[in-house]
Amino acid sequence: MIICDGLTKTFGSITAIQDFSLTIPDGCIFGLLGPNGAGKTTTMRMLSCLIRPTAGAAQIDSLEIGKKEDAQKIRGMIGLLPEVPGLYETLGAYKNLDYFGQFYGVPKQQREESIRTTLTNLGLWDRRSEPVGGFSKGMKQKIAIARALIHDPKYIFLDEPTASLDPAASKTVREYILELKSRGDTILINTHNLSEAERICDTVALVKNKIVKVGSPKALARGLFARTVSFTLQKIPSTLMKDISCLEFVSQAQVKGNQLVLNVRNPEEDNPRVVSWLMKQGLQVQFVTEEEHSLEDVYLKLIEEGGQ
């Protein structure tokens, strides 16, 4: 478990992140979302014990990130994908990973199995001997991800894991991240890819030099937006808007073409009541759909408002 309590980092007069307080449970995928300069990477670097916080504290498995004696233990528990891959470009993919595996003290047999498994899963096993300097940006990103996993860490910190990857490679990485979660790993992701975060993150924190909001993508959307349901009718009579005012559970109504669009309190309970009422009016209901608000909608609303 990761527990942050008032984590703050300043660089001179600039506050990168302030009063960052939250708990990340084990076995989940947690996303940090926010614009450039919002403090996401700074937070990840503090939790990785690469830089010290200016104020506040954080614990990873009850170890304090600010204690010198705990920092080395924490580094050994974390697999980190940084912003820049930082590979040895004259070495092959296999030798790069083998070197870092030795650096972490991973036994030879375990290194060999880990490298084979990870490169195979990422579609790079057949190119394991080629110098990575000739690889594309996306392929280097995959090698950097494999490097973060070489010592079988419990906590995996990924800074823009699918940056530079094409759609097929991004899909491979997403599926691999979900596989890591299924085995019980805890994954912290910084990303600008909101659709990706919506697909794989259990919980997200929207950050703008402080925490703006935390929750699951669906819970955040439902907390911000009224629940809107569209009823597609074969025909809409001119008196419908006046007649529908008798439904006390409808807070707002409008007509768009052959759709009756309603804001309701609880669609699960209210939709059948609306359908029943419409049928009593002699109207034929063709479709019932609830408007879905994406994580992008949530992000833009909260970040633009600055959490106000």
Short description:
This protein has 308 residues and is of the alpha/beta class. The protein is 38% helix and 27% strand. Strands 6-7-8-3-9-10 form a six-stranded mixed beta sheet, with helices on both faces. A four-stranded antiparallel beta sheet has the order 2-1-4-5, covered by helices on one side.
Strand-pairing-aware structural class: alpha/beta
Classify the beta-strand content into a percent band: 25-35%
Distance separating the two termini? 29 Å
Characterize the biggest β-sheet: 6 strands, mixed
Outline type: elongated
> Number of DSSP helices?
11
- Summarize the helix and strand pattern as letters: EEEHEEHEHHHEHEHEEHEHEEHEH
Instruction: Kindly identify the CATH topology of the largest domain.
Output: Rossmann fold
Characterize the quaternary organization of these chains: single chain
Description:
By secondary structure, this protein is of the alpha/beta class. It has two domains: 217 residues, Rossmann fold, CATH 3.40.50.300; 67 residues, Alpha-Beta Plaits. The chain has eleven helices and 14 strands. It has a six-stranded mixed β-sheet with strand order 6-7-8-3-9-10, with helices on both faces. A four-stranded antiparallel β-sheet has the order 2-1-4-5, covered by helices on one side. A four-stranded antiparallel β-sheet has the order 12-13-11-14, covered by helices on one side. Helix 3 packs across helix 4. It is elongated. It starts with a strand and ends with a helix.
